[in-house]
User: Fold this.
Amino acid sequence: MLTLYFSPGACSTASHIGIEETGVAYTERPILIAKGEQKTAEYAKVNPRGKVPALDVDGRVITENTAILSYLGRRFPESGLLPADPIDEAHCIGAMAWFSNTVHPSYQRYMRAERFAEGDAAIASVKEMGKKTFWANLEEIDALLTGRQWCVGDKFSAADAYAIVFYGWGLRAELPLATLANFTALKDRMLKRPKVMKVLQSEQSVLVK
Ligand SMILES: N[C@@H](CCC(=O)N[C@@H](CS)C(=O)NCC(=O)O)C(=O)O
Assistant:
């Protein structure tokens, strides 16, 4: 049995799209960050780090989008989440690692600057730099997509499920996403996938407003 813990609009949308794309039956367990539900003692039993996503597989929990999406791709190869070609697979994992270790933290500095500095001036500076760095990362994603339909190879993969999260966050930060033609085309291509649309609508994503 599979249970996905996620918070609408958070980075967990990547794993939510991923599990939906496999077509497997699973239980959805929303953990609302806005209400602090990730910090409860009950959720600490699932993920002691107090973060979403988490995927419970028959009582064994996987955390981190990169790990969850890789697991789903290995277990459900027909989903295409992990490319069959070993180099494409490595590129997919590499893209997810970069999203997790660089792109996500840049947005976090913009959104949660108070976690990275003390004092109003220092916090404001971290916030401003976070926004600039996040935008530079979005531009890099756009450049990586030059002449391509998908992030990796010529097919949808887990990297696309992850990338679209940042498009939504960019809209929330009121960044000029429409100027990123390649990334916007990827977003539009993703919205044509019924399972992606189902997840985004259920999460009331900014991407479908
Ligand atoms: N690298 C982790 C990041 C997980 C993470 O930071 N999740 C955020 C939501 S985007 C969260 O749970 N934040 C709650 C908190 O920090 O209190 C992953 O990709 O799964």
